[in-house]
Amino acid sequence: TRQTYVIGHRYIINFCCSAGPVQPGPPQSAAFIRQLSPGVPLPEPWWFRVMSYNILADQYAGTAYAQEVLFKYCPKELLDNNYRRQLVLEEILRYQPDICCLQEVDDKVYSEYLSPHLSRHGYTGHYTNKQGKVREGSAMFWRSGKWVAAAMQDIKLRDLFKLPLSDRHCQFTPMLESSPALTEALQKVTTIAQMVLLLPRNAAAGSSTDSCSNAAAAAAGPLLMINTHLFFHPYAPHIRSLHTAAILEEA
């Protein structure tokens, strides 16, 4: 039943009272045990903590095959994206990373949930969708108070391996020309990579009154972070090796 209360002369609060049974909340997450609580401070201001996390895209967790075969050991209600994304956010915040690299991020989870929430906690983010029709990709977040993004580049591996190859990757040309099957396979894989060049904010702005911190940050120099999700197939280590080599050449 809906009830309305008038408080003073200005506010009206509406809420619903359900007569049905109240469902118990989920048990404490196993991840809670391994999280930093409270967060362990870094010993020096120029040290930084990096987190990498494959959060399982909802389009892979929500299918019948995923629920009945791949993750049949997991209750279906725990695979629900509205439930999981809250735990993902909680885990990220409890680890307190300075840089967070996420894989299998649904585009809407990034734009409608993770990016707004993490921005309120002092993070700047960048999302790159995979090639093809899938609506998931990789996302990188960095602590805005500690880093400034000087440059960003999205790498589309499918494009890098289109013949004729660029001079940067021409060492792969004989291999591809001798194996049409490999060339075709590389054009089917949707892997992307993110490269973000980060500068320590104190060194970039020169605004800190702590000369030691400025000196240490300047000595550390820029940091190039790369985030990718390599092709999953167990019989494709050659694809993963080629992609890794190409990404390093781009870097």
Helical content stands at 25-40%
Count of separate DSSP helical elements: 12
- Name the poorly predicted regions: none
The counted number of beta strands is: 9
Biggest sheet character: 4 strands, mixed
Please state the CA-atom Rg, rounded to the nearest Å: 23 Å
How far is the first residue's CA from the last residue's CA?
60 Å
Explain how this protein is built.
- The chain is an alpha+beta fold and 251 residues long.
- The protein contains 12 helices and 9 strands.
- The strands form 3 sheets. Strands 3-4-6-5 form a 4-stranded mixed β-sheet, covered by helices on one side.
- A hairpin with a 3-residue loop joins strand 1 and strand 2.
Task: Name the features.
single chain, 4-stranded mixed sheet, 251 residues, 12 helices, flat, alpha+beta, 9 strands
Summed up:
By secondary structure, this protein is of the alpha+beta class. It is 37% helix and 26% strand.
Topology:
Layout: E1 2-7, E2 11-16, H1 31-34, E3 50-54, H2 58-61, H3 64-70, H4 76-79, H5 81-95, E4 99-106, H6 107-120, E5 123-129, E6 136-143, E7 147-156, H7 157-160, H8 173-178, H9 180-186, E8 192-200, H10 201-205, H11 211-220, E9 223-228, H12 237-250
Parallel strand pairs: 3-4
Antiparallel strand pairs: 1-2, 4-6, 5-6, 7-8, 8-9
